Amino acid sequence: MLRVAALQYCASDDVAKTLRHIQPLIAEAASKASLVALPECANYLAASREQLLQRAEWDDESYSQKWLGNIAREFGIWLLAGSLIMRRRDNNQLVNRSLLFGPDGAVIAYYDKIHMFDADVGDGKSYQESDSFSAGKSPVIAHVENVPCGLTICYDVRFAHLYRQLALDGAQLFLVPAAFTALSGKAHWHVLLRARAIETGCYVVAPAQSGTHADGRKTYGHSLIINPWGEIIAEAKDGDAIICAALDLSATVRAQNAIPSLKTNPVIGPTRVIGT
């Protein structure tokens, strides 16, 4: 049994302010769970692209990373920093990086977001992550108390093949920190996350940003914990929230045996297109 908590809040464009805001939330969550998960852009959400470039932290001397590691060690928890905006020292490129800290405060694993959110969802803003970020290349599974967890971020949830691959490689729990837009979230958030659970027979923990941010964007909130049968077992609404659940990992085996779609990998020929 793994006890998990997902935090929901509205990150400001100031790192110190955001970290001060979430410290009591982490403390409360740590009293209820051994794994605490923060949303995407856990430490700040920039007001502009110029500010994003200015405030990105170097990956080898990140204040936020050190702060979060210290918090994980202080409370003796596994802590997922849903993502931090990092500048790589080796090539000077920005990455949207999820970091998993162990109870000793050390970084156990990191994952760079693979799928860039280049979209126009109709809320008056154009989102072009590929203009600012270098995409990650590799899926990542990290073990939390012997539970294999697939690390993903936000827009990744629209790419079912990633989650199938993680499940085939042994993941039983997907971590999906997000800053989903309010407009697309209302239409797609629940159905996408439930679909990823149903397709793979895995748990989903999805901490989310919620509110109006410095750049004017509105995020959807509704952080979710979903079981392997696709049922929502915990959900936040709007604003600051902590949701918790105890995950019985034997449920993944039962779900995958009940509907063994992961064991089926049919060879599909080329599509036949009839007419023009």
Structure description:
By secondary structure, the chain is of the alpha/beta class. It has one domain (2-262): Carbon-nitrogen hydrolase (Nitrilase/N-carbamoyl-D-aminoacid amidohydrolase). 26% of the residues lie in helices and 28% in strands. β11, α5 (182-200) and β12 form a beta-alpha-beta unit. The termini are far apart.
* CATH fold category name: Nitrilase/N-carbamoyl-D-aminoacid amidohydrolase
Helix count?
A: 6
Mean pLDDT: 94
Regarding CATH, which class? Alpha Beta
Number of strands: 17
Helix-strand blueprint:
Elements: E1 2-8, H1 15-30, E2 35-37, H2 49-55, E3 57-58, H3 63-75, E4 78-87, E5 94-101, E6 107-112, E7 118-119, E8 127-128, E9 140-144, E10 147-151, H4 160-168, E11 173-175, H5 182-200, E12 203-206, E13 210-212, E14 218-220, E15 224-226, E16 232-235, E17 241-247, H6 250-258
Parallel strand pairs: 1-2, 2-4, 3-4, 10-11, 11-12
Antiparallel strand pairs: 1-17, 4-5, 5-6, 7-8, 9-10, 12-15, 13-14, 15-16
Helix pairs in contact: 1-3
